[in-house]
Amino acid sequence: MAIGLKELETRVKDLETMITKLIAQHLRLRERQVENTIQLLEGGATIPFISRYRKEATGGMDEVQVAAVKDEHERLLEVQHRREFITNAITEQGKMTPELQARLADCWDATVLEDIYLPFKPKRKTRAEAARRLGLEPLADLLQTKPYEDPVRAARRFLTAEVPDEEAALQGARDILAERINENEDTRNALRTTYQRFAVITSKVVKAKAAEAEKYRDYFDWSEPLSRCTSHRLLAIRRGEAEGFLRVSITPDDEERCLERLARPYVRRGTPAAPQMEMAVADAYKRLLRPSIETEFAAQSKARADEEAIRVFANNLRQLLLAPPLGQKRIMGIDPGFRTGCKVVCLDAQGNLLHNDTIYPHAPKNEYARACFRLTDMKDTYRIEAVAIGSGTAGRETEEMVRSLGWDDVQIFLVSEDGASVYSASKLAREEFPNYDVTVRGAVSIGRRLADPLAELVKIDPKSIGVGQYQHDVDPAGLKHSLDQTVENCVNAVGVNLNTASRQLLTYVSGLGPALAQNIVDYRAAHGPFRSRRELLNVPRLGAKAYEQCAGFLRIPDAENPLDNTAVHPERYDLVRQMAKDAGCDVGQLIASADTRAAIPLDHYCKGDIGMPTLTDIIAELGKPGRDPRGTASEFRFDDRLHDISDLEVGMVVPGIVSNITNFGCFVDMGINVKGLVHISRMANHRVKDPNEVVRLHQQVQVKVIEIDEARGRVALSLRD
Q1: Is 315 helix (H, G, I), strand (E, B) or coil?
Q2: CATH top-level class for 331-451?
Q3: Is the distance from CB of 268 to CB of 144 less than 8 angstroms?
Q4: Over the Cα atoms of the chain, what is R_g?
Q5: Of 60-64, 463-467, 674-678, the least confident
Q6: Domain 158-309 falls in which CATH fold?
Q7: Class for the domain spanning 645-718
Q8: How far is residue 654's CA from residue 122's CA, in Å, rounded to a whole number?
Q9: Nearest alpha carbon to residue 241 among 259, 266, 223, 216
Q10: DSSP helix/strand/coil, 631
Q11: Which candidate, 15, 265, 365, 422, has a CA 20 to 30 Å from the CA of 201?
Q12: Would you kindly state where each structural domain of the chain is located, as residue ranges?
């Protein structure tokens, strides 16, 4: 028993070593980096914590690299579990050989693994199985191994009541051969190579639905090499297919040439059996191989398109979440409307609702003067410092009205209201404002979004924020995983005020989650503001591990210990105190004096798990305690001449805001009812590979109008000089 246990431990260790080596090779990292990262992850450390506070262990890997190690580790473990299943299944069939065992043990490619398993995989009733039951397998063997024998004469030996004639016998033999050809690894790999080099994706409209499918007109009769098909085109085609408007196929560019290559290992030209083998190869290709490989490549191309779309979405979401906040100001939030009026709320500097009202400055009521009076009264009564106006319906008209009031001491912003309606109707909004309707909640969300985009947007499903690309067409699990990780990384990159953060915001802090976030809020309500990070250990169910993971990302602005308002982790407080003592001052003086910090000989403090990365981060953080890394929001004003697409003219240069970034360009909001597209080819005077090289989300830009298609609601723009 002891020997068996030791052997098991050895095998597990060997497996872990192999997985580490494979991850390091795939991600171009050192094995030690990967090994340490996996150990930290398995010990319960979060990605933000590892990338921020364990740089010595990881070699300075950022959160993207740590996440990549995590994902690759999970993928390889899945391959290992599948290999174990396949090994056991073949062994139970009594068909395992030493050679097969060795191949399985060395295989880490999921596709190859399935190819190995295919001949042993339990099958449903197939034509080949039916032929085997009729005793036709020897005939198939003869056709394959003795091509010079007469197939018809050979077939006569297999005639029975169930096999009435030679053709029936030969058909059964061909069915068996077709299955063998389909299950042959070399054949499948040869076809895969052909698909990789020559596959063409084709889409055609379903003729009966051509009128309904107008938005897919570009793909009514379209084809392109699969290797060159961009993610957005592929997702558009697949959406059209899913909606029943398009028929999509992936095939080699020359199927006859493809068949010839597949036939070479099986057909001996000029022999009596050659026609039978040719028919078997053609049947294997059309009935089994092509559908299987086409499905495989369709899935692979869709997965790559999903990955690219998710990457674009995550990048946009990151930029949106990290948009500069206005900060703690007394804000008037306005959710504009025509018929239903404009809902107005007044918020204090902490975002608490002080007052709400409804005004009707626009048609059909046209109570303009009354609306202006009410706005001015609210502005004076609640000492409003900024106005946030939703950018949707009636947004521009409402902005013009507010600006006409001449409030020189008030900043005015048009704020994207994407997702505000989703929040306003959510359970969370009902819990937060049980006595107010959705219009009030929506206006509050708009106002709070200006004050702190990150704190407000975490309350909304990322898919509803409006910065994605075909987000409803990609793998939902993959999208959720990526977006959740993005939100978590952003929240922890900025840091969270422990005494003002909502439950939703705290949920994304490293090491917390919904339950502990709620416990923190409840503790804060019962005991008042936190006075130190250490007090977190008094929160129910928040133990030492959770404290280790979350403490560095939580801030207490007015704490007695100034380090509690920095990203310095509590585990390094003693180190900072020692630095201050050695410099002849206290921690507060060390934070206040840049010269004192600059004079610290950091190499003197390198010991154990403390290296230069940690020391450098500490010094940098001491220089900016409590500082928001996002900067501050700035005002922007659209061109007063523009309200509708009809107001545009080719050649106009107008101000705009980047509202969405895709891999083929960016969309710009010009304050009208449509967004203009700056194609990637028109983003700069030089070639641009990635739009993010040129623009960022919510960037203020000057764009030139180069094309207007009013009928289709499309505007082409340029950022070129």
Answers
A1: helix
A2: alpha beta
A3: no
A4: 33
A5: 463-467
A6: Tex N-terminal region-like (1.10.3500)
A7: mainly beta
A8: 65
A9: 216
A10: coil
A11: 265
A12: 2-120, 158-309, 331-451, 491-622, 645-718
Is there a shared CATH topology between the 331-451 domain and the 645-718 domain?
Answer: no
- Cα angle for residues 317, 460, 384 (degrees, 5° grid): 95
| 659 close to 319: Cβ distance less than 8 angstroms | no
584-599 pLDDT, tens digit each: 999 999 999 999 999 9
Give the integer Cα–Cα distance in Å for 284 and 632: 65
pLDDT tens digit sequence for 364-402: 999 999 999 999 999 999 999 999 999 888 999 999 999
Superfamily of domain 2-120: RuvA domain 2-like (1.10.10.650)
Looking at 118-184, list the stretches that DSSP marks H as alpha helix, in order from N- to C-terminal side: 127-133, 137-145, 151-155, 166-183
> Phi and psi of 716, rounded to 5°?
-100, 135
Average pLDDT of every residue of the chain? 92
The one-letter amino acid at 276: Q
> Which strand (E) or helix (H) includes residue 594?
helix 594-598
**CATH class given for the domain over 491-622:** mainly alpha
Which of the four pLDDT bands, split at 50, 70 and 90, describes residue 3? very low
Res 1 pLDDT > 70: no
Query: HEC states along 72-84?
Result: HHHHHHHHHHHHH
Longest dimension (CA), the chain: 105
- For the residues of 546-590, what is the DSSP string, one character each? HHHHHGGGEE-TT-SSGGGGSS--GGGHHHHHHHHHHTTS-HHHH
